[in-house]
Structure to design on (325 residues):
């Protein structure tokens, strides 16, 4: 088996995250995308002794490394393998009703990109896999070789925001008639050949958007965000914080819209002359605009350049009702 890389893990927007999450000693927090534990370590240092951190991640490889990194915190850290859209069941299993803060750091990790056998990167030759939980689900190879042409077009267009979606999907459909597309190198080369010269000279690698699109589809990443955000809101105690870090517009848009809806005081139709719903805002949005990394952080960690952090604070008490979910 290919040895796991030891990347110089640099948690993105670490200081901004800590400030907005409002970590306090003795509190209970969730890192719903714990990954290699960079954010989790910083949280744990601030909430112990007496605090508890629940870390969730789909990736068994990442959790193995993170257990060692966080071992010094002992029973204060509970690591659970699973998708973050199971946040509510995970908290139920731990006997936790409310928490003081939840963090989501969406996207793919450096370790996943740098491990060739995981198949996430067009820069490393490996099997077309892309599953964040490598033990289950449909692989990118199965998707690329079996999805109908129209479905491939939709994925590349909608999830990759790729201008050449039709040309790339068509090239994939033609190539797989001759033989199955099996590796990241094969797919990346096919995409490069499918795009016209002017497009191939763009600063972003021609395959980048298509690989992003396939990864999102394989892992149902946007669906998981839509399912997880309401669960996180329900779990927040009054004055607790929710912080998200997104890396592309599709993720960030889901968070932005959710926060906006939760912050509304009234949900009546605009034609009503006065409020009849008696609604109250569920959250206060703490970031009117997304927080972006500064130039020094981007220089030290180029993968941080697209990061966008948003945060909100829970208002009032009680659980979400049917209208609020």
């Amino acid at each position: 088996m290919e040895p796991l890389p030891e990347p110089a893990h640099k948690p993105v927007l670490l200081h901004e995250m800590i400030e907005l999450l409002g970590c306090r000693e003795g509190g209970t927090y969730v890192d719903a995308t714990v990954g290699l534990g960079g954010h989790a370590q910083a949280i744990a240092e601030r909430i112990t002794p007496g605090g508890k951190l629940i870390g969730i991640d789909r990736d068994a490889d990442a959790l193995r490394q993170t257990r060692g990194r966080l071992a010094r915190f002992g029973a204060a850290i509970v690591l659970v393998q699973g998708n973050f859209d199971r946040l509510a069941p995970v908290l139920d299993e731990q006997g936790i009703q409310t928490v003081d803060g939840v963090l989501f750091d969406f996207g793919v990790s450096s370790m996943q990109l740098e491990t060739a056998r995981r198949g996430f990167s067009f820069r490393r030759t490996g099997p077309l896999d892309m599953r964040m939980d490598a033990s289950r689900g449909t692989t990118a190879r199965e998707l690329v070789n079996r999805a109908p042409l129209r479905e491939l077009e939709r994925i590349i267009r909608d999830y990759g925001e790729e201008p050449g979606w039709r040309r790339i999907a068509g090239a994939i459909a033609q190539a797989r008639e001759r033989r199955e597309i099996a590796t990241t190198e094969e797919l990346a080369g096919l995409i490069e050949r499918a795009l016209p010269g002017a497009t191939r000279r763009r600063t972003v690698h021609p395959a980048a958007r298509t690989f992003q699109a396939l990864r999102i589809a394989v892992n149902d990443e946007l669906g998981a965000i839509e399912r997880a955000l309401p669960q996180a809101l329900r779990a927040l105690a009054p004055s607790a914080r929710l912080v998200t870090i997104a890396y592309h517009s599709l993720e960030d848009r889901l968070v932005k819209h959710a926060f906006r809806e939760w912050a509304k005081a009234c949900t009546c139709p605009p034609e009503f002359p006065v409020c009849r719903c008696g609604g109250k805002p569920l959250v206060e949005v703490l970031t009117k605009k997304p927080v972006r990394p500064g130039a020094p952080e981007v220089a030290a960690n180029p993968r941080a350049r697209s990061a966008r952090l948003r945060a909100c604070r829970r208002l009032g008490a009680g659980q979400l009702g049917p209208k609020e979910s």
Summary: Residues 221-235 form the longest helix (15 residues). The longest strand covers residues 236-246. Residues 1-7, 318-325 have pLDDT under 50 and may be disordered.
